[in-house]
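Sync notes, pocket subgroup
Present: LS, DG
LS reminded everyone that the earlier model was apo-only. Rerun requested with zinc ion included. Inputs:
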Amino acid sequence: MRNRKNQIQRNRERDRKNGGHIRWDHVAVWIVAILLTALAVLLLFRMIPKEDTDVDLLLEEADELSIETEGQTEPVNAVPRPDIDEQLLTINEYSRPGEKVDAIEKVVIHYLGNPRTTAQENHDYFESLKDLKNTSMSANFVVGIEGEIIECVPPGEIAYASNSMNHLSVSIENCHLDETGQFTEETYESCMKLTAYLVEEYGLEREDIIRHYDVTGKECPLYYVEHEDKWEKFRDDVMAYVEECRGSAKQAQ
Ligand SMILES: [Zn+2]
């Protein structure tokens, strides 16, 4: 018994000299425990749904900023904006419902069918419909006999001109001197240049320039329904003007 005590005493003294006795079985248990804990923590983190961290938000803001910067560097419309007299109609259910279009995919050309009326008179008629309350009619633009352009409804907003195409188009009404519906030179020129501006502004093609006739079969614009060649020439003139403007815009750079 004494020997055994002495033996334990000696072992302790030796342990002190050696800096402690290492129990390898204990160490192994600790290592396994630490590894399991680390694994559990790792799994837990992977299960937590990723939320927006501050870094993510900062990155999103940076993206938005770069989009804005891209917007600023986008090429401007090569076709000059014609002189437009902006006289927006009062928002009302008969001529300017104030609703957005779904997209601008077409420019629809019309004639008023009311010889010798001016752009201003037709604008004022559209405006009066809110009080008359019996007719729905309007157009985004009216081009007058002297080539003047009045904007009644901004493009991107619905005007009541082109029936089923109202929510996909921008409409141009044209004044004329007589029953034939032929445009004066000035009306033709302004309508052509305004159409070219809209074609370039909304990334449209020649085929996207259409007549009211192409939507419903209505004889509008009359002269350009009865004279198909004049209609095709109008579209050619628009596209030639677009090309000409693109050419001079390139030279200016
Ligand atoms: Zn029409």
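DG: The domain at 85-252 is CATH 3.40.80.10 (Lysozyme-like).
LS: DSSP finds eight helices and six strands in the chain.
Action: DG to write up.
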